[in-house]
């Protein structure tokens, strides 16, 4: 609640240029000035030019299509966790909407994305981690940051990682995605200086306990400065990475 | 392993300006060129001008003092998780070493720190989270980034938080520290655009399960782009924040 | 076991107005005087004018229909956790039974509900929490208390919450429903004085561990006086809220 | 944020009876009007005539005494989770402060408490649950509601419970405190109509896992309408009960 | 390894009545003399006149039918955890085999069961616990002990339990089956003197965590002398009860 | 609540041989006729000639001594979980009370114990399990059943077990006590026909998780009919075994 | 990084026999000289003549077939966790590929396997553990080590185990596979001197918690020298056993 | 139970060279022929020339000394988990017993150890893992296998590991010890062909949960053929490694 904003409202009221009822409205609106439609269930509505985001999990094809219909007058749209069935339903109605089957995302790019100068490297331990990596990539791009995937460089064959170090060192921010024991985050964390956002995945079985092993492993990483997001949360990692990108570009 | 570095070494050998034995040494040293003493147990030796860091947990006062003795010819030194007893022992021997009892850190600043332009805000839910916040602050500062603590702005009295929003909005990176349910990270994550590094703390009892409630809460935060470090890990959050700061300042 | 009731029975026996066998029956019945049919599996038979409640989970359509058939001579009936298939089966047989597909409830209102004066506000963090909220609403209403749902006011966009504070402040009791980290209970708990019953939901994935994150978060809430029911238990929250409502109205 | 309050401030500004700077202050203060000292770590500062509450865990005797010193000009004060050592330190300085060794509370009653008409019954399964019960009782009383403890009526000798049913039925709100399997909450929940706030305790060993067995048991209680607070949280249960009491008395 | 058996074998060898090779066979067979077919996967082959038991989980209809075919020359047979599909397949081939759809058991009674004098009472908290109760009943009966089910006497309506106390007191051993918080075991344990075998069930949802709440509750029961078997393990409880019955009848 | 008892009371009232007030008393006392002092915190007061039992955990030496003082006019007394310090305090006051330092029990045998004919074998995997075994033995004996300990026969040297099979086969009921993986219960369960009560102990470290490994192992034992009590609960196992013994002796 | 290899490369560069660019290539390749195709998602590519291994879980039939197509010019191939549907798809395209439905493996043996002299015994507690045992057997064989399965020798009928001790003693390395409480590993560990690799399986229900009980049991085994792999990981156990076999044969 | 041994006993009985009573003794002793003193609580008595091993945890100094006294006529002795206080007590009585304060072991070498030809490398991630490594080393040596420790080569500075690869490749068996996320096992597992026994340690805090993170990480390692022992179990890892060594040397 900015003092100056408050002061100017009060000034307007005292001046008589702002009737009490309008002042009342302004005061009530202050903390959420730039928000439009709270009734639509958004993944997280990212303000300031970010696209609208829909979290598709638990929604029927009809519901998702309906939300897209309401978004026709908005900017770009991203929907995550979209099943093939929902995608077909939505794309039939809105042919310009694109489905990425690996990332399980729908994107509706109405305004050309103008990319910043930063580059994000999305690194996966195995090819089974690709859906999470693709979700991160699609999210980065619609948020205006270029991202590329370096896949299958897990620590069980660490030479594969070393072979890609040059590419890794060129990126500004790293998203490291791994299931099983999640050791890749620690190894990369010991080799580079960039911010690392680690994404544990549910890839594995048994003592993996649906991603718990990678999650605990990344949180207790012996490499300092690794931060972690929820299991399989490629979208969240991309949001965090893009916030850093935006900061650099300012 | 940078191609150019390899090429220049080989070139030197071919030219005869670099004898084979010296080339051999250089090649073996490449990935850990600037490391001196791997036998000393460092928290995480941060290369590139970063200070040496000692993880004090489980070390005797004598061992810590001994490590400080070996570090006399190195740059600045940070030691974390230091008990009062160890601090007394070390400070008696090295009077210029400073003990911060709240942060439980020892710092030995031999070369004046030249701060960058970035500012980090360290926000705590309650005053019981202060030791973690202080550890983060001391770490940020010795890594060359200014940081200030905004304490006791937990969500149970959310007006306290709003009162500090202006300060919070001025910082480039936020470290949000909370125990119990850790809701502060979600609330701030919904209000600002900066990168947020959340630190769950073990503050609480019962269903807190030594920090598990705050940890799970922060990982499943409904605000996108919040990243998380280990429970009570102020040091790790500061490292992550400073990596971002360094990127901005480049 | 009320002394007076015992005394009056004994008095009747001594007076000869109550034959021994009838006294025996009365004594055996004392603690469960107003119960009719213990063989039917009820969710929880709420005495004193409350409707009969059937817990539908794990019952076949035929079993549920059969219970409804046995309840024809009883008062109002509520059935929870009812699948669409079961609903079709029951409603085909008893056309006056209403199915609420979101709440997954069947209601059979034979006697018009006479509402009390109290109002309950049911607040959800996201639209995915709606099934739990609807179950709570249907339960409140058949228990004779008016309830309204304020949905999608989660803390990631806290302005949405503030916009509804007036409505929230008007209710006597609040039911706060949230998945993920469940922070909404803490935030509301810090803003209002009413009793708050928090319902963690299984909405989320990964470190949500089927509702564990919200459950632990709500139990360790930094706002005092928040109480918690089982994960996804909209019915239980409504029962608790209506007990309070009834107390107020007395 | 009450519309009327906002309107009256704006009216005052327009009228000229309220200078802009004072209006500004009032607006900034609105959500936390009656809060004085946010820097002191309060358990949860209960507004509206409620006493100040200090959460003593993790504070030194000096810190707690210092907070009491700052509270001299405030109303009644409650401090919870106070060790004997801290109590001695504080009472030496402030002789009118009372220590309850079982409840581990300090109370400083400067203004005579005016009790409401409601009564709360605090019921424990065993005598080992007494510290939690006493914390609840002390809290209820300083919040202005009479409470009495019915101890040692656990279900392993259910006749002890039945013997006390008359007392239990007289209270408006019940706080049920039990460790081990926590079955007392279910049994009482099946016998009475009042609101029940269940407090699991860490009493037990082995598969009790520090209160987890009672916690899960109470959350999954087969009696509807039982709500639960954190393990050993007598304070929180009392706050919830007093919120209900206040509602009744309105 | 019984001394007398060893002695008689050696005596036979010394006497010459037992050739060395036959003695060798006898010695090798000693610890498993009365076992026939170790290659068939039995639930637990109960020796001494007990029927053969097949654990059906994870077996195809063909495999189960095949085992029944191999058991034609054995005594009575019990198969547990049998799906309807498997039952149809087996019963088509062996018409005298009986399927109990609630218990999910197949029984093949070739020799009339001669019941002992002991009676086992199987008590359930709710009707959803019936499949476990039926599995226990079928097992008791084929093991030669009469058992009867007293269902739906859970603690949320404790009068229903008291109404059945006479029946309960008549049984020698009690099997108490309950899901949710499993409080029934504690309550009965406090009322009677018989051995109680408690079976936690997976009935419930949320914080029930697939039976964990009832399991922990029963293990930490405040009533002494309650013993517990695995979640949903009606078969195991019946085996334990019948061992006691057999002991009594000796 | 026995019909005959009720009938005879009513008959007395009708006859005039029982005044109403005395009838009232009798009726109120029915379910807890033989209980004396509910205010003393008993482990579990075992009716019918069983001794009074005190659960010492969390009680001060003074409190325990005070309870003993109140028990002077009662029969035999058992106190469990008694520290050495408490024992000294109590024994100084009541010299006839015996302390068993391994079992951590106090026993006060005023009336000579008359043992039944049954024998219980208490079998431990290792010598570290002895405290639990001794607690079980002391409990069995004061409950009137002879018990002997067979220690250190764990499965890692299974010959040690076979060497004791004759002794094991002679007992009527077996209590099997093991930490680590708790395999002893399964192995014995496969060798004998007697009832087996398994006690997991907290002996072990790491993945033992304070007894969890033995607890889960015993609950999932592949030998049917093994029942389990809480971790380290020698007292509870003895109570269960003695209930069986009593049944046999009837 | 072998000194001699480095030296010979440098020597070659100095001699002029190795151009700088080729030296550069050699240096970059050093740590992963013998790897061919990092882009294919391999279970774990075992170097040195071991076959290529594909982890089939989460791959479509088309993807697996495609990987087989790329492996035509490689040596023998093993694919694990293959569904029947995938197997049909692959075998239709590559008729020489063999599907083992129990082991859920595909094997493509192009070069005859030359077996070593070592023998591995794979021992299972029950027949339900067979899929894991078969996966281990198939893996051992394609890795060039003979293995045989001894099934259904669980501890609940320990005589079955003793009957097979001779066979067990003949093997060099033992793989012990058990679900439920996993006690078989401890029992065998106490009887033999060979290395034992224990595989917990998810066979069981309830307190088995998807293999957790067997996993914890094996990790805390009272028999020293038992090592453990992931739940249901027959493949991993076989790899470990074959590493030992290879060592023996050297 | 070896056929030949049985046959020779029976032959002796038939021949008359072996009286029945002596034959009886021999038969009873067969499975535990070479065991002496089962009453002493041994860690795990390793037969065949292995030393006696005492597990010191939970034993008083007197008890440990007493066991040593009973072992005077045995071979070499190893005691693990020995506190300094116990060590002093034992060494005062038996001056030739050696205490290793880091390993927390006592060793009593009466017969010179004759080492085999195999070498074991014990590799630790950090210096805090040294106590576990030392326990492993002492155990290896008294079991007759040479072992050397390579410490502080954790993955956060992976160059430190590469620097030691030559030493690592020379050993026959590797013991890899790491806390925190335990990634070292995966990385080494991907670089070498030897058998790897991984030991998770409890080094770390927060989400380490006393070693759980390293344990789960090692069990789900993406490198095939890594086997795991209990948390902090250096002794067990050494036993497993020495079993392999013994096999190689045969």
Automatic annotation (TrEMBL), chains A, B, C, D, E, F, G, H:
UniProt xrefs under Gene3D superfamilies: 3.40.50.1970
Domain PurE: 118-250
Pfam families, A to Z: AIRC
Sequence intervals crossing the membrane: 171-192
Keyword Transmembrane: yes
Domain of life (superkingdom): Bacteria
Alphabetical keyword list: Membrane, Transmembrane, Transmembrane helix
InterPro entries named among the record's database cross-references: P2CMN_synthase_LarB, PurE_dom
Presence of the UniProt keyword Membrane in the record: yes
Annotated protein name in UniProt: 1-(5-phosphoribosyl)-5-amino-4-imidazole-carboxyl ate carboxylase
Protein species of origin: Pseudodesulfovibrio nedwellii
